[in-house]
Amino acid sequence: REYFKEVIATGKSVISDPLYSVGNGRHIIVVAVPVRNGNEIVAILGGCIDLSVLSDLVSAKGGGLGKVFIVQKDGLMVTQPNEEFIMSYNGRMYNRSYSDYKETISKMIRGETGVAKNTFQDGDRYLAYAPVPGSQWSLGITVPASYVSQQLYYLPVYFVIITVCLGFVL
């Protein structure tokens, strides 16, 4: 396996690209870690993570409001709240009329970090993205633009209230 060869060659932990497991009939990733005796690698410890479990873990961090997903280097969704999209949906290749989304996915693939406003079928959303350390993946989270606007609406009100209160105190 390439990931074991990479661990031996580099001496660093490796997260594999998603693989199809014949054993359980699902997509998995392999995490391989070198076991050392001094400076010498004496063994490799490997473990498998089911992508649907990883997707559930990542989605739980979204708090229900946002949608969290991971994209690999070719644009394919590694994790996604909708399980049927895992390893079958490619953000760059999908025939969408939303070019801003394709551009954001391209930035994610290049390993960039940022925030973009994208148009989706259910309305405008802000998409924040950043590379996942130790892999060639990028993590993205979308939040409805209306939610962000609503939160920013109250910011000046809070500022005025705090300013008036401080004015009375002074």
How would you describe this structure in keywords?
single chain; 170 residues; alpha+beta; five-stranded antiparallel β-sheet; four-stranded antiparallel β-sheet; 4 helices; 9 strands
Give a short summary of the structure.
The chain is α+β, with helices and mostly antiparallel strands. Helix content is 32%, strand content 36%.
3D architecture notes:
By secondary structure, the protein is an alpha+beta fold. 32% of the residues lie in helices and 36% in strands. It contains four helices and nine strands, in the order αββββαββαβββα. Strands 6-5-9-8-7 form a five-stranded antiparallel sheet. Strands 1, 2, 3 and 4 form a four-stranded antiparallel sheet that branches. A hairpin with a 5-residue loop joins strand 5 and strand 6. The longest helix has 25 residues, at 145-169. The chain is extended and about 70 Å long. The N and C termini lie far apart (69 Å).
Task: Record the SSE blueprint.
Elements: H1 2-10, E1 14-15, E2 19-21, E3 26-37, E4 40-50, H2 51-60, E5 67-71, E6 77-79, H3 99-109, E7 114-120, E8 123-132, E9 137-144, H4 145-169
Antiparallel strand pairs: 1-3, 2-3, 3-4, 5-6, 5-9, 7-8, 8-9
